[in-house]
């Protein structure tokens, strides 16, 4: 799948898309219950890095992603993108925009638009391109991702793996600095998943955007990421940051290397500890 | 493009027709990559044909000789059900290739699908055996074309079993077909809808429907006129009603042959039409805003919810006081319940939209108005049409109530006056007519809904509906 001539850009080779998360706190307060979801979380993500986020269920990963995307406000702290303030004390809610595009867990292609119209949606809405021009570019980008022939299908007519690819192309169409993934492959079977992983890496090698990727699948996390951030149980904060020192470009053969197994063991240990804590906390509350 | 070559044409294509075929083949997925001279050679074994809408091009089980390429028009490809495939259909347009069973192994050249022309279509047919022979002159090209066929079959037709049977594709070649630009001209939704209707007519479903009607009418006839069951005895019998209905000289003055009959129908249809139109024009926007704006909803919804349960009949006195004449009050009464049904369903439709759609639109840089236009309105559409179907139903319901109270014409009026004037068969004529006209109007709403929501129709079709 990956041509041998393809070279992986060094991490941070790109100058745009560095995320800087400083002391972010998020407290949900429904009926004065004060649930602390994120607690003084500090994390730096370099431009062009694939940063994988893992952590126990309900620890606050999505909350952090929503804060970056601008779907939810933060209680305190600051988030910067390339030195520009996204949200902070003066402006708790970031403005959502095409520089940070989310790929959702259940997919959010508009079912009432064809795949082509979906891909062209962003640039047409922003008035960056005329419709005709946008469709042309969309068609070319879809062809690049091996999606020719599905332009005029509605998302509901194609397989879920294909839908995910279309959604990623829709995001890339806007030339974003950051892609935010919230467990996008959770619902896929493992075979489709492995195809999607290689496809994602291929796209990444071409575009080199910063990727913030939440997952529960440790194999996926190590296979894709430059770094792995293991979060504590709620309230979430990085517990352990692991450098994945397997060089890119990677393909599925790295899964069988001893280094991969080693990293896997380390991660499992850390994650398991947090998962147990979170489970026990749940027991106490319940 | 090929109209001058009639369907019967069998001689090899002329020089310029051949050029056209080469140009067409270049746009198709399997042939896109091959050399000009090879394309010329393939064009040499191609024959243009044209088909009328509704014509079956081939059926599952037929012997497969030719591969087809659509030049213009639209063809529906319906994969028949086998243990390994589910029924799946796909509509094909210019540049699409189908009929690939013709390039499978010798013993497998049997159609797995049925291809039907949806819109007058021009196609070219390429003999499968001849095609393979020509391609084999250059084995490398043959390999690429076959592998593309395999990719196309699995990806676009969802027929994995058949793909495995095709000449084994080269595993070292990644399946990354380049763009096959397709013209924007899609089969119009209307043609597709008409085609579905004609297919319905050819299926066994209409027969079952007729059987249901026969049972119902038979029971009516037997219980009233033959068995004379208690309670049923007093009812007008089937033969009496139908004799009256089809009489050139009806005893009670209303039948298929009297102009009054059509006048009553027309008056009722017109009232329902106006009321339904107003209810839609006002109810849909109101519902959209109720669902979209929290503040607006806080002002309006409580009042709305208080007015909604008031029955139509309770509005009659006010309607008569408010509006002069006999027409406007009836239309107003018919309008009311429809309006509430439409607005409420539209609001629920907006609420049903998954948050991730609006968030995705925000991410992609859509403004608030654009989100409304491109996400809220189409997202609520399925609920809106459910609401409209309910709305036509309640419009007829309220119309009859209104016509019974005040009104000079109309089917409700017919039913009511026939009762006071002891014209019992006419009551039943009025009732059946009402039922039939009501059914037609609600079917019309459904057809319009399907037409406007092709995406949903296709999704449901894949779900096996
Ligand atoms: N809108 C909200 N109001 C109140 N509490 C919330 C809200 N959203 C999330 N929470 C709570 O905050 C905590 C963190 O939620 P979050 O969705 O960020 O977790 P997560 O790490 O993404 O979990 P998962 O792995 O299950 O997706 C959870 O305990 C959840 O109940
Ligand atoms: Mg989550």
Assembly classification? heterodimer
Question: What's the domain count of chain B?
Answer: 2
Distance between the termini of chain B: 36 Å
Beta percentage of chain A is 15-25%
- Name of the CATH class of the domain at 19-99 and 176-280 in chain A: Alpha Beta
Largest interface: A-B, 38 and 40 residues
- The gross shape of chain A turns out to be globular
If you compute it from the alpha carbons, what radius of gyration of chain B comes out, rounded to the nearest whole angstrom?
30 Å
Which spans of chain B of ≥5 residues are poorly predicted at pLDDT below 50? 1-10, 82-87, 159-187
What is the H-and-E element order of chain B? Answer: HHEEEEEEHHHHHHHHHHHHHHH
Proportion of strand residues of chain B: 5-15%
Specify the biggest β-sheet of chain B.
Answer: 6 strands, antiparallel
What is the CATH top level name of the largest domain in chain B?
Mainly Alpha
Query: Given the helix and strand composition of chain A, which structural class is it?
Result: alpha/beta
Can you give me a brief rundown of this structure?
The complex is a heterodimer of chains A (286) and B (465). With 286 residues, chain A is an alpha/beta fold. Helices cover 35% and strands 21% of the residues of chain A.
Structure description:
The complex is a heterodimer of chains A (286) and B (465). With 286 residues, chain A is an alpha/beta fold. Chain A is 35% helix and 21% strand. Chain A has helices at residues 61-69, 115-125, 131-144, 160-172, 190-207, 218-224, 258-285; strands spanning 19-28, 35-45, 50-54, 76-81, 84-87, 100-103, 178-182, 210-214, 227-231, 238-243. In chain A, strands 6-7-8-3-9-10 form a 6-stranded mixed sheet, sandwiched between helices. Chain A has a 4-stranded antiparallel sheet with strand order 2-1-4-5, covered by helices on one side. The radius of gyration of chain A is 19 Å and the shape is globular. Chain B folds into 2 domains: 3-187, Jelly Rolls, CATH 2.60.120; 236-462, MetI-like (MetI-like fold, Orthogonal Bundle), CATH 1.10.3720.10. Chain B has 17 helices and 6 strands. In chain B, strands 1, 2, 3, 4, 5 and 6 form a 6-stranded antiparallel sheet that branches. In chain B, β3 (66-79) and β4 (88-92) form a beta hairpin. The longest helix of chain B is centred in the C-terminal third of the chain and has 38 residues, at 368-405. The chains are: A alpha/beta (286), B alpha+beta (465). Chains A and B meet through β6, α2 and α3 of A and α4, α13, α14 and α17 of B. The site of magnesium ion (MG) has 3 residues of chain A, from α1. Adenosine-5'-triphosphate is lined by residues 28, 30, 35, 37, 55, 57-63, 234 of chain A.
């Amino acid at each position: 799948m990956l041509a041998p001539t393809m070279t992986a850009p060094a991490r941070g080779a790109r100058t745009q898309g560095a995320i800087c998360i400083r002391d972010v706190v998020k407290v949900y307060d429904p009926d004065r219950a004060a649930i602390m979801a994120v607690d003084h979380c500090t994390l730096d993500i370099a431009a062009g890095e694939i940063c994988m986020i893992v952590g126990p269920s309900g620890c606050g990963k999505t909350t952090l992603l929503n804060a970056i995307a601008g779907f939810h406000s933060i209680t305190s702290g600051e988030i910067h993108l390339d030195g520009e303030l996204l949200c902070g004390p003066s402006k708790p809610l970031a403005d959502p925009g095409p520089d940070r595009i989310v790929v959702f867990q259940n997919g959010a292609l508009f079912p009432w638009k064809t795949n082509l119209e979906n891909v062209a949606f962003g640039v047409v809405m922003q008035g960056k391109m005329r419709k005709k021009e946008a469709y042309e570019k969309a068609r070319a980008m879809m062809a690049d991702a091996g999606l020719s022939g599905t332009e005029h299908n509605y998302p509901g007519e194609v397989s879920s793996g294909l839908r995910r690819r279309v959604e990623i192309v829709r995001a890339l169409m806007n030339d974003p600095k950051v892609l935010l993934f919230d467990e996008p492959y959770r619902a896929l079977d493992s075979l489709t998943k492995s195809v999607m992983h290689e496809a994602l890496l291929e796209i990444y090698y071409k575009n080199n955007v910063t990727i913030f990727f939440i997952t529960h699948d440790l194999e996926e996390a190590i296979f894709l990421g430059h770094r792995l951030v293991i979060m504590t149980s709620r309230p979430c904060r990085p517990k352990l940051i692991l450098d994945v020192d397997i060089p890119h470009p990677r393909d599925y053969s790295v899964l069988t290397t001893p280094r991969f197994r080693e990293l896997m063991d380390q991660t499992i240990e850390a994650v398991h500890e947090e998962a147990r804590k979170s489970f026990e906390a749940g027991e106490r509350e319940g | 493009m090929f109209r001058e070559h009639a369907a019967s044409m069998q001689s090899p294509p002329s020089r310029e027709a051949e050029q056209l075929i080469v140009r067409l083949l270049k746009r198709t997925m399997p042939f896109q990559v091959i050399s000009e001279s090879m394309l010329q050679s393939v064009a040499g074994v191609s024959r243009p044909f044209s088909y009328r809408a509704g014509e079956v091009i081939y059926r599952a089980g037929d012997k497969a000789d030719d591969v087809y390429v659509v030049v213009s028009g639209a063809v529906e490809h319906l994969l028949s059900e086998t243990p390994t495939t589910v029924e799946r259909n796909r509509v094909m347009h210019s540049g699409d290739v189908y009929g690939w069973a013709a390039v499978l192994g010798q013993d497998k050249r049997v159609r797995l699908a049925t291809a039907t022309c949806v819109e007058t279509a021009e196609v070219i047919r390429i003999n499968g055996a001849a095609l393979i022979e020509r391609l084999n002159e250059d084995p490398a090209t043959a390999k690429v074309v076959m592998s593309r066929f395999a990719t196309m079959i699995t990806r676009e037709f969802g027929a994995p079993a058949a793909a495995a049977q095709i000449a084994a594709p080269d595993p070292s070649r990644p399946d990354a077909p380049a763009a096959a630009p397709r013209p924007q001209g899609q089969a119009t939704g209307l043609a597709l809808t008409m085609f579905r209707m004609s297919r319905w007519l050819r299926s066994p479903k209409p027969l079952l429907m007729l059987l249901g009607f026969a049972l119902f009418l038979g029971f009516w006839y037997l219980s009233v006129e033959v068995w004379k069951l208690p309670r049923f005895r007093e009812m007008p019998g089937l033969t009496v009603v139908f004799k009256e209905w089809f009489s050139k000289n009806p005893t009670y003055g209303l039948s298929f042959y009297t102009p009054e009959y059509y006048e009553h129908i027309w008056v009722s249809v017109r009232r329902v039409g106006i009321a339904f139109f107003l209810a839609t024009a006002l109810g849909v926007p109101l519902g959209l805003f109720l669902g979209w704006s929290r503040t607006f909803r806080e002002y309006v919804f409580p009042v709305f919810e208080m007015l909604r349960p008031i029955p139509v009949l309770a509005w009659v006195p006010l309607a008569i006081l408010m509006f002069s004449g006999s027409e406007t009050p009836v239309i107003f009464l018919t309008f009311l319940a429809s309006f509430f049904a439409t607005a409420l369903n539209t609001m629920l439709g907006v609420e049903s939209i998954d948050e991730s759609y609006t968030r995705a639109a925000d991410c992609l840089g859509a403004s608030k108005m654009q989100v409304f236009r491109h996400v809220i309105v189409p997202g609520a559409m399925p609920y809106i049409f459910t609401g409209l179907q309910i709305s036509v139903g309640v419009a007829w319901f309220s119309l009859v109530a209104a016509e019974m109270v005040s009104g000079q014409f109309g089917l409700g009026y017919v039913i009511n006056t026939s009762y006071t004037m002891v014209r019992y068969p006419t009551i039943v004529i009025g009732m059946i007519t009402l039922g039939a006209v009501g059914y037609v109007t609600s079917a019309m709403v459904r057809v319009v809904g399907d037409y406007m929501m092709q995406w949903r129709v296709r999704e449901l079709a894949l779900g096996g509906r």
